[in-house]
């Protein structure tokens, strides 16, 4: 019997019986408050430029979140006010156009609204016969098209590329050792598996080898050329040396957009090598894969269509709000062989809710999963791939503009080539590592711009990763001016410091 028609227990009126629910008694009041919350976030996005990129968190603000657990009910309006005053102003700042610190996407108002719809629907996308899964399958099909993967390809949403890389490595492990590895473990195979990636590889790949029981030493770090791309001859030599030593090469990881300098490995050469050596070819395209949306950049991703598995994020260059990672596997069968479980409570049927197998829980490690596909579907549907591609393209143009400004400024120097959207540079000075690190902290604390630091060829560099669709020329100009001003101020104080020390 539907809940609405439940008979009152002990003669109490139905409204009393329903008091136990967490829904409001006054929906009108909730609605008004909800509209206020929505307006606040739209205001935040509309006026983001007027705010600092980031600001240090005062101790009183942190203290507000060191309180004991609440037993009695609180007030929604008060909770919202606390969020507005204590949380929102102290976020990382990746929504802001001046944020260039790490490879973070900027999000969009459309993505935010879609998150609200998904939150209300509260769909669990582990499985069962439901339209939300068809939305996810639509994205799988679109990605198959975008990356020219065959019909056999399958994939799913995950938290991020870290998880997608792990899935790629686990799947490669199944391909190398067979399904037996799932119950017998890696040791019983009696093989010493080894994998290869360039020196620019993301740490999540190293961690994936560790998590899957092969150990992070199983990842061979292959040298890079002057453009920070994997040296393919060095790769071939490393494979040969490992085979000669009785080890079993099983996986090559190519990177499409390294996190430090934005280098793109030669994916065609890696695909050729992987095929010849019969190795699994995984591509970490965390942000770079979506350069595929731009016709002239797409050329440089050639070979990505030959990957056995591809990991990337919609939450970086796709501008979908966090989190929205994705893994695409050339033959979905491998995902099932790696993850599917015969649990009796997950029994399938030809009809009813248990229809529509295989489900995402057969293809990855999660059972309960949120509706990440919805914000991605809205983003792709409302903006379209041309517009999303334009923002990718603009980020690269801004990176070239920044590189030019660095080259034109005598006190600045480029620290690495700029193949994509990441610019590594330095303020020229004595004690360069320390001064450049200080410049970055000064900039972040000023709220004007938020670059980060990385190490290029053993030396510290300021890194500006341009990923946000809101970033414009004026933000690049502000960054350059602020670096010069902070660098000049520090350089001017150095002789004084040196005098004081002597
Ligand atoms: C960001 C990034 C990752 C990790 O992705 P998450 O979504 O943060 O888990 C992996 N590889 C590269 C190249 C990245 O840029």
Which terms would index this structure?
alpha/beta, disordered N terminus, single chain, binds pyridoxal-5'-phosphate, 16 helices, 502 residues
Main sheet attributes: strand count, strand direction, barrel closure: 7 strands, mixed
Cα(first) to Cα(last) distance is: 88 Å
Low-confidence stretches: 1-9
Tell me how many strands there are.
Answer: 11
Mean pLDDT: 94
Strand content: 5-15%
Secondary-structure element order, N to C:
HHHHHHEHHEHEHEHEHEEHHEEHEEH
Helix content estimate = 40-55%
Describe the structure.
- The chain is α/β, with parallel strands linked by helices and 502 residues long.
- The chain has helices at 14-17, 27-46, 59-63, 76-87, 109-121, 131-146, 161-177, 181-184, 203-211, 232-244, 267-277, 295-298, 332-339, 372-408, 432-446, 473-501; strands at 154-158, 193-198, 219-222, 248-255, 280-284, 309-313, 325-329, 412-414, 422-427, 452-456, 459-465.
- Helix 14 packs across helix 16.
- It binds pyridoxal-5'-phosphate.
- Pyridoxal-5'-phosphate (PLP) is lined by residues 103, 160-162, 202, 204, 255, 257, 259, 284, 286-287, 313, 325.
């Amino acid at each position: 019997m539907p809940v609405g028609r439940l008979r009152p227990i002990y003669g109490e009126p139905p409204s009393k019986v329903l008091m136990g629910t967490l829904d409001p008694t006054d929906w009108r009041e909730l609605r008004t408050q909800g509209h206020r919350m929505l307006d606040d976030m739209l205001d935040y996005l509309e006026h983001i430029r007027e705010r600092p990129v980031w600001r240090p968190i005062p101790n009183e603000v942190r203290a507000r979140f060191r309180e004991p657990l609440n037993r009695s009910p609180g007030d929604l309006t008060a909770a919202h006010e606390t969020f507005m005053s204590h949380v929102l102003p102290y976020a990382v700042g990746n929504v802001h156009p001046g944020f260039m610190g790490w490879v973070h996407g900027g999000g969009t108002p459309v993505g935010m609204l879609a998150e609200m719809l998904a939150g209300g629907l509260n769909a669990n996308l582990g499985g069962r016969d439901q339209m939300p899964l068809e939305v996810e399958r639509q994205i799988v099909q679109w990605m198959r098209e975008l990356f020219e993967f065959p019909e056999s390809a399958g994939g799913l949403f995950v938290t991020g590329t870290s998880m997608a890389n792990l899935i790629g490595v686990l799947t490669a492990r199944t391909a190398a050792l067979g399904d037996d590895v799932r119950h017998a473990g890696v040791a019983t195979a009696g093989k010493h598996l080894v994998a290869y990636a360039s020196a620019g590889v993301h740490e999540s790949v190293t961690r994936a080898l560790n998590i899957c029981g092969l150990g992070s030493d199983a990842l061979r770090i292959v040298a890079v050329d002057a453009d920070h791309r994997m040296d393919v001859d060095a790769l071939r030599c490393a494979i040969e040396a490992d085979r000669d030593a009785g080890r079993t090469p099983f996986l090559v990881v190519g990177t499409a957009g390294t996190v430090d300098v934005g280098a793109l490995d030669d994916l065609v050469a890696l695909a050729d090598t992987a095929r010849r050596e019969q190795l699994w070819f995984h591509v970490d395209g965390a942000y770079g894969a979506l350069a595929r949306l731009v016709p002239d950049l797409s050329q440089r991703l050639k070979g990505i269509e030959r990957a056995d598995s591809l990991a990337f994020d919609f939450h970086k260059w796709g501008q979908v709000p966090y989190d929205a990672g994705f893994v695409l596997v050339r033959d979905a069968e491998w995902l099932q062989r790696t993850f599917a479980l015969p649990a009796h409570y997950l029994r399938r049927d030809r009809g009813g809710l248990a229809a529509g197998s295989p489900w995402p829980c057969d293809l990855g490690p999660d059972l309960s999963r949120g509706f990440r596909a919805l914000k991605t579907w809205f983003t792709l549907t409302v903006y379209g791939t041309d517009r999303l591609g334009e923002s990718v393209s603009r980020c690269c143009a801004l990176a070239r503009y920044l590189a030019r400004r660095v080259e034109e400024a005598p006190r600045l120097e480029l620290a690495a080539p700029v193949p994509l959207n990441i610019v590594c540079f330095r303020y020229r000075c004595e004690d360069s590592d320390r001064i450049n690190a200080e410049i970055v902290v000064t900039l972040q604390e000023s709220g004007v711009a938020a670059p980060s630091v990385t190490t290029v060829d053993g030396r510290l560099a300021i890194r500006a990763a341009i990923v946000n669709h809101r970033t414009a020329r004026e933000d690049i100009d502000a960054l350059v001016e602020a670096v010069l001003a902070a660098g000049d101020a520090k350089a001017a104080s150095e002789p004084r410091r040196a005098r004081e020390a002597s």
